[in-house]
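pinned: reference chain
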Amino acid sequence: MTTSDRKIYSDPLVTLYQGDSLEVLKGLPAESVDMVMTSPPYYGLRSYKAEPVIWDNHNGCQHEWGDGKEHLLNMKSGNPEFSRPWREGATATVSSGNFCLLCSAWRGQLGSEPTPDLFIKHLCDIFDEVKRVLKKTGTIYVNIDDSHSGSWGNMSHTFNDKEYPEGRPPQSFNQGVPAKSLIGIPERFVLEMLNRGWIRRNTIIWKKDSVMPESVKDRFTIDFEYVYMFSKSKHYFFEQQFEPATTPPDFVFRTDKARITGTTQETGNYFKKGGYKEYEAEHGHYYNGQRNRRTTWTINPQGFKGAHYATYPEELCRTPIEASCPEDGIVLDPFSGVATTAVMAKKLGRRAIGIEISEKYHQMAIKRIQNTTARMV
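pinned: its C-alpha coordinates
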Protein backbone atom coordinates (compact mmCIF):
# COMPACT_ATOMS: atom_id res chain seq x y z
CA MET A 1 0.00 0.00 0.00
CA THR A 2 1.38 3.40 -0.99
CA THR A 3 1.36 6.50 1.21
CA SER A 4 -1.34 8.10 -0.94
CA ASP A 5 -3.51 5.02 -0.41
CA ARG A 6 -3.24 5.59 3.35
CA LYS A 7 -4.60 9.14 3.15
CA ILE A 8 -7.84 9.26 5.13
CA TYR A 9 -8.51 13.00 5.19
CA SER A 10 -7.28 16.14 3.48
CA ASP A 11 -8.19 19.83 3.45
CA PRO A 12 -6.11 22.88 2.44
CA LEU A 13 -4.17 22.77 5.72
CA VAL A 14 -4.42 19.28 7.25
CA THR A 15 -3.67 15.83 5.86
CA LEU A 16 -4.21 12.66 7.88
CA TYR A 17 -2.79 9.22 7.10
CA GLN A 18 -3.94 5.97 8.65
CA GLY A 19 -1.34 3.30 9.27
CA ASP A 20 1.82 2.34 11.12
CA SER A 21 3.98 5.44 11.62
CA LEU A 22 7.18 3.83 10.40
CA GLU A 23 5.65 2.64 7.13
CA VAL A 24 3.80 5.90 6.40
CA LEU A 25 6.90 7.98 7.13
CA LYS A 26 8.89 5.95 4.62
CA GLY A 27 6.55 7.21 1.91
CA LEU A 28 6.95 10.91 2.74
CA PRO A 29 9.55 13.01 0.87
CA ALA A 30 12.90 13.69 2.50
CA GLU A 31 13.33 17.10 4.19
CA SER A 32 9.68 18.00 3.63
CA VAL A 33 8.45 19.05 7.11
CA ASP A 34 9.52 21.98 9.27
CA MET A 35 8.90 20.70 12.78
CA VAL A 36 7.37 17.87 14.80
CA MET A 37 5.13 18.05 17.85
CA THR A 38 4.10 14.67 19.18
CA SER A 39 3.43 12.39 22.12
CA PRO A 40 4.29 8.71 21.55
CA PRO A 41 2.31 5.89 23.18
CA TYR A 42 2.94 5.24 26.86
CA TYR A 43 5.01 2.15 27.59
CA GLY A 44 2.86 -0.60 29.05
CA LEU A 45 -0.09 1.59 30.06
CA ARG A 46 -2.43 1.74 27.11
CA SER A 47 -4.32 -0.55 24.76
CA TYR A 48 -4.76 1.07 21.35
CA LYS A 49 -6.81 -1.77 19.80
CA ALA A 50 -4.71 -1.70 16.64
CA GLU A 51 -3.46 -4.47 14.41
CA PRO A 52 -0.03 -5.78 15.47
CA VAL A 53 3.01 -4.58 13.53
CA ILE A 54 6.06 -6.66 12.62
CA TRP A 55 9.24 -4.97 13.88
CA ASP A 56 12.90 -5.70 13.12
CA ASN A 57 11.75 -7.70 10.13
CA HIS A 58 14.36 -9.72 8.24
CA ASN A 59 13.72 -9.87 4.52
CA GLY A 60 12.99 -13.36 3.35
CA CYS A 61 12.17 -14.80 6.77
CA GLN A 62 8.93 -16.77 6.69
CA HIS A 63 8.40 -16.14 10.42
CA GLU A 64 7.26 -18.79 12.80
CA TRP A 65 5.72 -16.97 15.73
CA GLY A 66 6.22 -18.16 19.27
CA ASP A 67 3.57 -18.07 21.95
CA GLY A 68 2.55 -14.66 23.21
CA LYS A 69 1.29 -13.60 26.61
CA GLU A 70 -1.87 -11.68 27.41
CA HIS A 71 -2.70 -9.80 30.58
CA LEU A 72 -5.40 -7.54 31.97
CA LEU A 73 -4.43 -3.89 31.79
CA ASN A 74 -5.89 -1.53 34.37
CA MET A 75 -6.69 1.63 32.45
CA LYS A 76 -6.39 3.70 35.63
CA SER A 77 -2.63 3.22 35.51
CA GLY A 78 -0.49 6.21 34.63
CA ASN A 79 -1.62 9.82 34.85
CA PRO A 80 -5.37 9.94 35.56
CA GLU A 81 -5.97 13.54 34.56
CA PHE A 82 -9.11 12.75 32.54
CA SER A 83 -12.03 11.53 34.63
CA ARG A 84 -14.55 9.64 32.52
CA PRO A 85 -17.17 7.13 33.79
CA TRP A 86 -16.29 4.65 31.04
CA ARG A 87 -12.60 4.94 31.92
CA GLU A 88 -12.50 4.60 35.67
CA GLY A 89 -11.99 0.99 36.60
CA ALA A 90 -11.95 -0.14 32.98
CA THR A 91 -9.69 -2.99 31.98
CA ALA A 92 -8.58 -4.44 28.68
CA THR A 93 -6.86 -7.59 27.53
CA VAL A 94 -3.50 -6.69 26.03
CA SER A 95 -1.03 -8.86 24.16
CA SER A 96 2.68 -8.46 24.83
CA GLY A 97 3.35 -9.64 21.30
CA ASN A 98 5.49 -12.55 20.24
CA PHE A 99 8.91 -13.20 18.74
CA CYS A 100 9.74 -15.05 15.56
CA LEU A 101 11.37 -18.40 16.31
CA LEU A 102 13.62 -18.02 13.26
CA CYS A 103 14.85 -14.43 13.52
CA SER A 104 14.76 -11.50 15.94
CA ALA A 105 11.50 -10.02 14.60
CA TRP A 106 8.79 -9.09 17.09
CA ARG A 107 5.08 -8.74 16.34
CA GLY A 108 2.96 -6.42 18.45
CA GLN A 109 1.80 -2.87 19.19
CA LEU A 110 4.26 -0.08 19.94
CA GLY A 111 4.23 0.33 23.71
CA SER A 112 3.46 -3.32 24.43
CA GLU A 113 7.03 -4.60 24.06
CA PRO A 114 8.14 -7.05 26.76
CA THR A 115 11.14 -4.88 27.73
CA PRO A 116 11.75 -1.12 27.92
CA ASP A 117 14.87 -1.40 25.75
CA LEU A 118 12.90 -2.98 22.92
CA PHE A 119 10.27 -0.24 23.17
CA ILE A 120 12.95 2.47 23.04
CA LYS A 121 14.59 0.80 20.03
CA HIS A 122 11.32 0.69 18.10
CA LEU A 123 10.44 4.26 19.08
CA CYS A 124 13.83 5.62 18.01
CA ASP A 125 13.64 3.65 14.75
CA ILE A 126 10.56 5.75 14.02
CA PHE A 127 12.44 8.94 14.89
CA ASP A 128 15.23 7.90 12.52
CA GLU A 129 12.62 8.12 9.78
CA VAL A 130 11.34 11.40 11.25
CA LYS A 131 14.87 12.79 10.90
CA ARG A 132 14.85 11.87 7.21
CA VAL A 133 11.63 13.79 6.48
CA LEU A 134 12.62 16.75 8.70
CA LYS A 135 14.27 19.74 7.05
CA LYS A 136 17.83 20.57 8.08
CA THR A 137 16.39 23.66 9.76
CA GLY A 138 13.82 21.57 11.62
CA THR A 139 13.23 20.76 15.29
CA ILE A 140 11.10 18.22 17.13
CA TYR A 141 9.23 18.35 20.43
CA VAL A 142 8.46 15.03 22.11
CA ASN A 143 6.13 14.74 25.10
CA ILE A 144 6.98 11.46 26.81
CA ASP A 145 6.08 10.15 30.24
CA ASP A 146 7.33 7.38 32.50
CA SER A 147 5.76 4.12 33.69
CA HIS A 148 6.09 2.20 36.94
CA SER A 149 7.43 -1.32 36.84
CA GLY A 150 4.74 -3.85 37.69
CA SER A 151 1.91 -1.71 36.35
CA TRP A 152 1.16 -4.54 33.92
CA GLY A 153 0.37 -6.87 36.79
CA ASN A 154 2.19 -10.21 37.11
CA MET A 155 4.81 -9.86 34.40
CA SER A 156 7.45 -12.26 35.67
CA HIS A 157 7.12 -14.64 32.74
CA THR A 158 10.35 -15.44 30.85
CA PHE A 159 10.47 -17.04 27.41
CA ASN A 160 11.29 -20.73 27.44
CA ASP A 161 13.36 -22.54 24.82
CA LYS A 162 10.32 -23.18 22.64
CA GLU A 163 9.29 -19.53 22.64
CA TYR A 164 12.76 -18.07 22.31
CA PRO A 165 15.55 -20.14 20.75
CA GLU A 166 18.76 -20.71 22.67
CA GLY A 167 21.71 -18.54 21.69
CA ARG A 168 19.90 -15.20 21.48
CA PRO A 169 19.64 -12.63 24.30
CA PRO A 170 16.93 -13.55 26.81
CA GLN A 171 13.82 -11.39 26.85
CA SER A 172 11.56 -11.31 29.89
CA PHE A 173 8.39 -9.59 30.95
CA ASN A 174 9.80 -8.31 34.26
CA GLN A 175 10.75 -4.96 32.66
CA GLY A 176 14.28 -5.19 34.09
CA VAL A 177 13.74 -2.99 37.17
CA PRO A 178 12.31 -3.69 40.64
CA ALA A 179 8.55 -3.67 41.06
CA LYS A 180 7.05 -0.22 41.83
CA SER A 181 10.14 1.57 40.47
CA LEU A 182 9.87 4.18 37.73
CA ILE A 183 11.33 2.51 34.66
CA GLY A 184 13.10 5.62 33.32
CA ILE A 185 11.47 5.70 29.90
CA PRO A 186 12.18 9.43 29.29
CA GLU A 187 15.84 9.08 30.27
CA ARG A 188 16.32 5.96 28.15
CA PHE A 189 14.70 7.73 25.21
CA VAL A 190 16.96 10.79 25.49
CA LEU A 191 20.14 8.73 25.69
CA GLU A 192 19.21 6.67 22.63
CA MET A 193 18.26 9.79 20.66
CA LEU A 194 21.68 11.28 21.48
CA ASN A 195 23.32 8.03 20.38
CA ARG A 196 21.53 8.40 17.05
CA GLY A 197 22.83 11.90 16.41
CA TRP A 198 20.02 14.19 17.59
CA ILE A 199 20.96 17.46 19.31
CA ARG A 200 19.12 17.91 22.60
CA ARG A 201 18.30 21.61 22.96
CA ASN A 202 15.87 21.75 25.87
CA THR A 203 14.11 19.74 28.52
CA ILE A 204 10.74 21.42 29.05
CA ILE A 205 8.70 20.67 32.16
CA TRP A 206 4.96 20.58 31.53
CA LYS A 207 3.58 21.41 34.97
CA LYS A 208 -0.08 20.69 35.76
CA ASP A 209 -1.57 22.64 38.63
CA SER A 210 -4.95 20.91 38.42
CA VAL A 211 -3.73 17.32 38.12
CA MET A 212 -6.14 14.83 39.68
CA PRO A 213 -4.98 13.03 42.84
CA GLU A 214 -3.44 9.60 42.35
CA SER A 215 -4.56 6.64 44.43
CA VAL A 216 -1.15 6.21 46.09
CA LYS A 217 -0.08 6.72 49.70
CA ASP A 218 3.62 5.82 49.62
CA ARG A 219 4.94 8.43 47.15
CA PHE A 220 4.20 11.96 45.95
CA THR A 221 1.59 12.77 43.31
CA ILE A 222 3.18 13.33 39.91
CA ASP A 223 2.18 16.72 38.49
CA PHE A 224 4.47 17.12 35.48
CA GLU A 225 5.62 15.53 32.25
CA TYR A 226 8.63 16.08 30.01
CA VAL A 227 8.70 17.71 26.59
CA TYR A 228 12.09 17.26 24.91
CA MET A 229 13.26 19.61 22.18
CA PHE A 230 15.75 18.16 19.68
CA SER A 231 17.24 19.65 16.54
CA LYS A 232 18.60 17.94 13.46
CA SER A 233 21.51 20.36 13.05
CA LYS A 234 23.23 23.13 14.98
CA HIS A 235 21.50 25.89 13.02
CA TYR A 236 17.72 25.77 12.72
CA PHE A 237 14.63 27.94 12.44
CA PHE A 238 13.56 29.41 15.78
CA GLU A 239 11.38 32.42 16.52
CA GLN A 240 12.21 33.67 20.00
CA GLN A 241 9.29 33.47 22.44
CA PHE A 242 8.77 35.77 25.41
CA GLU A 243 6.99 35.77 28.74
CA PRO A 244 6.38 38.47 31.39
CA ALA A 245 9.60 39.34 33.20
CA THR A 246 9.81 38.81 36.95
CA THR A 247 13.02 40.78 37.54
CA PRO A 248 13.16 43.62 40.10
CA PRO A 249 11.77 46.91 38.73
CA ASP A 250 15.20 48.58 38.75
CA PHE A 251 16.49 46.19 36.08
CA VAL A 252 15.76 46.00 32.36
CA PHE A 253 16.33 43.31 29.73
CA ARG A 254 18.24 43.87 26.47
CA THR A 255 17.64 41.51 23.55
CA ASP A 256 20.51 42.42 21.21
CA LYS A 257 24.32 42.52 21.37
CA ALA A 258 26.00 45.82 22.21
CA ARG A 259 29.60 46.94 22.36
CA ILE A 260 30.03 49.05 25.46
CA THR A 261 33.36 50.35 26.77
CA GLY A 262 35.17 47.82 24.61
CA THR A 263 33.27 44.78 25.96
CA THR A 264 30.64 42.82 24.05
CA GLN A 265 27.56 42.27 26.21
CA GLU A 266 25.65 39.14 25.14
CA THR A 267 21.93 38.92 24.39
CA GLY A 268 19.77 38.45 27.45
CA ASN A 269 21.83 40.28 30.09
CA TYR A 270 20.11 42.40 32.71
CA PHE A 271 21.30 45.96 33.36
CA LYS A 272 20.47 48.47 36.07
CA LYS A 273 18.31 51.34 34.99
CA GLY A 274 20.37 54.48 34.74
CA GLY A 275 23.44 52.57 33.58
CA TYR A 276 24.83 52.61 30.03
CA LYS A 277 23.00 55.86 29.23
CA GLU A 278 24.98 56.45 26.08
CA TYR A 279 24.00 53.05 24.63
CA GLU A 280 20.39 53.38 25.70
CA ALA A 281 20.03 56.78 24.09
CA GLU A 282 21.62 55.60 20.85
CA HIS A 283 19.85 52.27 20.42
CA GLY A 284 16.91 52.02 22.82
CA HIS A 285 16.74 48.22 22.40
CA TYR A 286 15.34 47.24 25.77
CA TYR A 287 12.43 44.81 25.77
CA ASN A 288 10.63 46.23 28.79
CA GLY A 289 8.54 43.84 30.86
CA GLN A 290 9.42 40.72 28.86
CA ARG A 291 12.07 38.00 29.01
CA ASN A 292 13.04 34.93 27.00
CA ARG A 293 10.55 32.17 27.79
CA ARG A 294 11.68 29.68 30.44
CA THR A 295 11.37 25.90 30.29
CA THR A 296 8.72 25.30 32.97
CA TRP A 297 5.29 25.66 31.37
CA THR A 298 2.21 25.58 33.58
CA ILE A 299 -0.62 24.29 31.39
CA ASN A 300 -3.61 22.53 32.87
CA PRO A 301 -4.81 19.28 31.29
CA GLN A 302 -7.58 19.61 28.76
CA GLY A 303 -10.44 17.16 28.89
CA PHE A 304 -11.67 15.37 25.79
CA LYS A 305 -15.17 13.96 25.42
CA GLY A 306 -14.20 11.08 23.16
CA ALA A 307 -12.83 7.70 24.23
CA HIS A 308 -9.16 8.57 24.02
CA TYR A 309 -6.95 8.03 27.05
CA ALA A 310 -4.06 10.42 26.55
CA THR A 311 -5.00 13.69 24.85
CA TYR A 312 -2.52 16.42 25.66
CA PRO A 313 -3.84 20.01 25.76
CA GLU A 314 -3.84 22.16 22.66
CA GLU A 315 -1.97 24.91 24.51
CA LEU A 316 1.01 22.60 24.97
CA CYS A 317 1.43 22.72 21.18
CA ARG A 318 1.08 26.48 20.76
CA THR A 319 4.55 27.68 21.81
CA PRO A 320 6.51 24.94 19.97
CA ILE A 321 4.59 25.61 16.76
CA GLU A 322 4.93 29.39 17.01
CA ALA A 323 8.63 29.08 17.81
CA SER A 324 9.67 26.40 15.36
CA CYS A 325 7.32 26.38 12.37
CA PRO A 326 7.39 29.25 9.84
CA GLU A 327 4.01 30.64 8.83
CA ASP A 328 4.17 28.74 5.54
CA GLY A 329 5.62 25.62 7.14
CA ILE A 330 4.41 22.09 7.88
CA VAL A 331 3.95 20.51 11.30
CA LEU A 332 4.15 16.71 11.58
CA ASP A 333 2.71 14.48 14.29
CA PRO A 334 3.62 10.81 13.70
CA PHE A 335 1.40 9.70 16.62
CA SER A 336 -1.49 12.06 15.99
CA GLY A 337 -4.26 10.33 17.96
CA VAL A 338 -7.25 12.67 17.81
CA ALA A 339 -5.15 15.33 16.03
CA THR A 340 -4.54 17.81 18.85
CA THR A 341 -1.31 18.97 17.16
CA ALA A 342 -3.06 19.40 13.81
CA VAL A 343 -5.92 21.33 15.42
CA MET A 344 -3.52 23.86 16.97
CA ALA A 345 -1.48 24.06 13.75
CA LYS A 346 -4.66 24.88 11.83
CA LYS A 347 -5.64 27.52 14.40
CA LEU A 348 -2.23 29.12 13.88
CA GLY A 349 -2.51 29.00 10.09
CA ARG A 350 0.14 26.31 9.59
CA ARG A 351 -0.17 23.17 7.54
CA ALA A 352 -0.15 19.83 9.35
CA ILE A 353 0.36 16.13 8.70
CA GLY A 354 -0.93 13.54 11.14
CA ILE A 355 -0.23 9.80 11.19
CA GLU A 356 -2.38 7.49 13.31
CA ILE A 357 -2.87 3.73 13.23
CA SER A 358 -6.37 3.75 14.75
CA GLU A 359 -9.31 4.39 12.43
CA LYS A 360 -11.47 5.11 15.49
CA TYR A 361 -9.19 7.95 16.55
CA HIS A 362 -9.10 9.29 13.01
CA GLN A 363 -12.87 9.63 12.94
CA MET A 364 -12.76 11.68 16.14
CA ALA A 365 -9.86 13.71 14.71
CA ILE A 366 -11.69 14.55 11.49
CA LYS A 367 -14.63 16.01 13.41
CA ARG A 368 -12.28 18.17 15.50
CA ILE A 369 -10.42 19.44 12.44
CA GLN A 370 -13.61 20.24 10.53
CA ASN A 371 -14.84 22.26 13.52
CA THR A 372 -11.59 24.26 13.73
CA THR A 373 -11.28 27.69 12.14
CA ALA A 374 -7.95 28.45 10.49
CA ARG A 375 -6.15 31.71 11.17
CA MET A 376 -5.40 33.67 8.04
CA VAL A 377 -1.69 34.39 7.53
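why pinned: Confidence is low (pLDDT under 50) at residues 74-91, 152-174, 255-268, 270-286. The chain has two domains: 4-241+293-370, 242-292.
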